[in-house]
Automatic annotation (TrEMBL):
Entry-linked PANTHER family: HISTIDINE AMMONIA-LYASE
Enzyme class, broadest EC rank: lyase
Catalytic activity: L-histidine = trans-urocanate + NH4(+)
InterPro entries: Aromatic_Lyase, Fumarase/histidase_N, HutH, L-Aspartase-like, Phe/His_NH3-lyase_AS
Official protein name in the record: Histidine ammonia-lyase
Subcellular location: Cytoplasm
Any one GO molecular-function label of the UniProt entry: histidine ammonia-lyase activity
Pathway in which the depicted protein is active: Amino-acid degradation; L-histidine degradation into L-glutamate; N-formimidoyl-L-glutamate from L-histidine: step 1/3
Organism in which the protein naturally occurs: Ferrimicrobium acidiphilum
């Protein structure tokens, strides 16, 4: 894969998270890296203090380090900051972390040698993945603790995973025919500073929530037909007078999914004047979700292509400038908005499930099963959906509004971006499960309206579901059905049926 630092696409990140066997950087990149490293080397020989090169860190920035201890300074920095705790990050996230760190360092503003970048590329392409604890970062100064665990691998310290098997870092390096490195001036700091962990976690969350959102468009359309709802709320004229792009796109998708439905034609002149909001307001709610996904994707793509190190090396003037690009507030806010959007996807889907099992609203058999009483049908499956939707309300509480000063008040405002992004994983899984339960319930409802048919598009969806889950005839062990349907949502199988494109950033030519 050819990588242009500063111009990575979401599609490249998708490919890397699943593993690639080759990463290539252009020759011009290496020249820039070498020039930056030479600039740092020259600065390290001077007596004037330069943060992180010949000084301490954080509150110790005013402590100057003698030339004889500059290499020890970088080693000690990595070891003292490797204080992460908690479960290790998943392999797909670690792969994205490595790519983002490579792309940042390769832009030539960090002053590291080409050897450091080459070592990171080796780890990535041979899938020798650092074991990085998921907890311990407050999102400023960057993701220090988790990135320290990544950097420690280059020193031969810590653990790696190779083909899913954990081993000592020194053994992982041996698999690559590599020896532990000695980090030069600023190299330890450059490896630790940055938002790559929080950004990778947020992008992983973005991908999962996108799949759930697209799946929810499909199940939302299915619920409209199962409940004998109206397609009038999806009329393009209603959306056009308001003007929101997401609303317009989503309404169009519902019309395409429901086109040719015999159920829609059958109840065209029924006595109902308006449907409940969970059916009627889907373009407004899900449209807002898609607009939010687009904004978050663009923000995270900018962050993925930015340089979040500190200090930064500007070779044109030979200066090293201290700033705050390590502060992950953009990532934190994007992750917070993703969490809110995800919670709304699940909240609306749960309401549609509740509608379908209520015979007074749906006109279907109670709890979507024949012989109610001896059969409970989807009664408790809805309770599970309600439980997860309620849990998501807590998970969607903004993390970016919190801050706890660190480093003896030198770092007195932090972003909490890493937690903001990390909680997207369980949140997205909850949403996928809720949408999966709606998939089961809405398919059941449509089948209970036989012989009146749904649309051809939704018939294809139901046929795919029935490959893994049968129609609900009588009460049975239901958990495996939910698990199988959840995989269809989580793996993007259901999303593939959604006739909607999420153009993220036209200037980058990228689509979600």
């Amino acid at each position: 894969m050819q990588i242009q630092p500063g111009a990575i696409t979401l599609q490249q990140l998708r490919l890397v998270r699943d593993r690639v066997s080759e990463i290539a950087l252009s020759g011009a990149v290496w020249e820039s890296v070498d020039t930056s490293a030479a600039t740092v080397s020259a600065i390290a020989q001077r007596s004037a203090p330069a943060y992180g090169i010949n000084t301490g860190f954080g509150r110790l920035a005013n402590t100057q380090i003698p030339p004889s201890e500059l290499l020890l300074l970088q080693r000690n920095l990595v070891l003292s900051h490797a204080v992460g705790v908690g479960e290790p990050l998943p392999d797909p996230v670690v792969r994205m972390v490595l790519l983002l760190k490579i792309a940042s360092l390769a832009q030539g503003y960090s002053g590291v040698s080409s050897a450091v970048i080459e070592a990171l590329i080796d780890l990535l392409v041979h899938d020798v993945l650092p074991v990085i604890p998921s907890q311990g970062s407050v999102g400023a100064s960057g993701d220090l603790a988790p990135l320290a665990h990544l950097a420690a691998i280059l020193l031969g310290i810590g653990e790696v995973r190779v083909q899913g098997k954990a081993m000592a870092a020194i053994d992982g390096l041996a698999c690559l025919d590599r020896s532990p490195m000695i980090l030069g001036p600023k190299e330890g700091l450059a490896l630790l500073n940055g938002t790559q962990v929080s950004t990778a976690l947020a992008i992983e969350g973005l991908f999962a929530i996108e799949r759930a959102a697209l799946g929810a468009v499909v199940t939302g359309a299915m619920s409209v037909d199962a409940a004998a709802g109206s397609v009038v709320p999806f009329d393009h004229r209603i959306q056009a007078v308001r003007g929101h792009r997401g609303q317009i796109d989503v309404a169009r998708a519902y019309l395409r999914l429901l086109e040719g439905s015999g159920i829609a034609q059958w109840h065209q002149n029924c006595e109902k004047v308006q449907d409940p909001y969970s059916l009627r307001c889907q373009p407004q709610v899900m449209g807002s979700v898609f607009d939010t996904l687009r904004w978050c994707a663009q923000t995270l793509l900018v962050e993925a292509n930015g340089v979040s190190d500190n200090p930064l090396v500007f070779v044109e003037t030979g200066e090293v400038l201290s700033g705050g690009n390590f502060h992950a507030e953009p990532v934190a806010m994007a992750a917070d908005f993703l969490a809110i959007a995800a919670s709304e996807i699940g909240g609306l889907a749960e309401r549609r499930i509740a509608l379908l099992i209520d015979s007074t609203l749906s006109g279907l058999p109670p709890f979507l099963v024949k012989d109610g009483g001896v059969n409970s049908g989807f009664m408790i499956a809805h309770v599970t959906a309600a439980s997860l939707a309620s849990e998501n309300k807590s998970l969607a509480h903004p993390a970016s509004v919190d801050s706890l000063p660190t480093s003896a008040n030198q770092e007195d405002h932090v972003s909490m971006a890493t937690f903001a992004a990390r909680r997207l994983g369980p949140l997205a899984r909850n949403v996928a499960t809720i949408v999966a339960i709606e998939l089961l319930a809405s398919a059941q409802g449509i089948e209970l309206r036989a012989p009146v048919p749904t649309s051809a598009a939704l018939q294809r969806v139901i046929a795919r579901l029935r490959e893994v889950v049968p129609h609900y005839d009588v009460d049975h062990y239901l958990a495996p059905d939910i698990a199988a349907a959840t995989e269809l949502v989580a793996q993007g199988v259901l999303a593939a049926f959604a006739p909607i494109e999420l153009s993220v950033c036209p200037s980058l030519g990228e689509a979600l």
